Amino acid sequence: MSKENIKSTEKSKLNERQKIVIYFFIYAILGWILETVFCLVTLGTFTKRGFLYGPLCPMYGFAAVAMVQLIKNVKTNTVGKFCICMILFTIFEYVVAVVLESLFGLRWWDYSNEVLNFQGRISLPYSIAWGIIGIIFIDKIHPYVKTKIDKYSEKISKNVQILILAIAVLVISIDFILSIYRYSIMLL
Question: Which pTM was predicted?
Answer without folding.
Answer: 0.82
